[in-house]
Design goal:
By secondary structure, this protein is α/β, with parallel strands linked by helices. 37% of the residues lie in helices and 20% in strands. It is globular and about 60 Å long. 45% of the residues are buried. The structure holds 2'-monophosphoadenosine-5'-diphosphate (ATR). 2'-monophosphoadenosine-5'-diphosphate binds next to α5.
Length: 291
């Protein structure tokens, strides 16, 4: 990659940030389409988020992805918030404006596009959302916005599920979300559901775990999406697949949140499908240790 005085600079801030595969993805896009942009990792400690945003602005940095643990803390340092990011209460992408950075949440766009690509139609579907943390908020927003008939929010802590359900019901002005304790999943009477798994259960190295073990739960599912992509097939997806459900892992979500960010930083650019497919293959190689 050749950079020069006119190169646009973007990056990702987080702590830790060393494991991030976003630099590989964004630099691949720039190389493939011949865009003069470089993307670098920034290790930012919790107490330095405000300074980092101010410093980035002073350094003329065009865009920044924000990852754990700064997705909420960064919000007070922005000049503007996109409607979706405000509703979700978390920001993962900053875009430079005249006065500061505008915050977006492209995780929601990433999930939405990945589910569409996997042939998972949300509209008029009874959905089961597992988890009520940060990732679940973006997923709840997508499920409500795209017309789920009902969203059961299943979480180990019932209170958190209920709070998220109320937030979304208030936001969308109809009572479509209901908080349910994870152990009470059998209270859900619907079948043919679409499930979206956003807890950390089953993520490497705890790959033998699933948030729900009983096979009767998986019989309720027509489709199952897991936001996890390490491993590629979580135990949750394996159980869903064995019960006959269509499944998809979180790699697509990772890819498309990146595409959405890249296109926000480069107005007028639309990444071609074959370039996106190439990035997916690159990520796959990397994650499977083949690269
Ligand atoms: P993220 O930003 O990735 O969503 P988070 O906000 O810390 O991370 O949320 C983690 C989610 O995983 C929560 O829904 C959490 O459930 P609680 O709210 O009850 O803590 C869920 N989770 C984590 N470990 C779990 C476990 N062993 N069993 C069930 N749920 C678990």
């Amino acid at each position: 990659m050749i950079t020069n005085g006119t190169s646009k600079v973007c990056g990702v801030m987080g702590c830790p940030v060393e494991h991030s595969i976003s630099p590989m993805m964004h630099n691949y896009y720039s190389e493939q389409i011949g865009n003069d942009m470089i993307y670098v990792p920034f290790l930012v400690q919790r107490e330095a988020v405000g300074d980092a945003v101010q410093g980035a602005f002073a350094l003329n940095i065009q865009g920044i992805n924000v990852t754990v643990p700064h997705k909420q803390a960064v919000m007070e340092h922005l000049s503007e918030l996109d409607e979706g990011a405000r509703a979700i209460g978390a920001v993962n992408t900053l875009v430079r404006t005249k006065d500061g950075y505008k915050g977006y949440n492209t995780d929601a766009e990433g999930l939405s596009r990945a589910m569409k690509e996997a042939g998972m139609d949300i509209s008029h579907r009874a959905c089961i959302l597992l988890g009520a943390g940060g990732a679940a908020k973006a997923a709840a927003y997508v499920l409500c916005r795209e017309g789920a008939s009902k969203v059961y929010i299943l979480n180990r802590s019932l209170k958190k599920a209920q709070v998220l359900a109320e937030e979304m019901n208030g936001l969308f002005g109809r009572p479509m979300c209901l908080g349910v304790a994870l152990s009470d999943w059998s209270q859900i009477k619907e079948d043919h559901c679409l499930a979206v798994q956003t807890t950390s259960v089953g993520m490497y190295p705890e790959t033998e775990q699933a948030p729900v073990e009983e096979s009767a739960f998986y019989q309720k599912l027509d489709m199952a999406f897991d936001a996890i992509y390490t491993p590629m097939e979580t135990r949750f997806l394996k159980l869903a697949s064995e019960a006959g459900a269509k499944t998809a892992n979180g790699l697509g979500m990772l890819i498309y949140q990146g595409v959405a960010a890249y296109e926000l930083w480069n107005p007028g650019v639309k990444l071609p499908d074959d370039v996106i497919a190439g990035a997916k293959e690159l990520m796959l190689c990397h994650l499977e240790g083949r690269a």
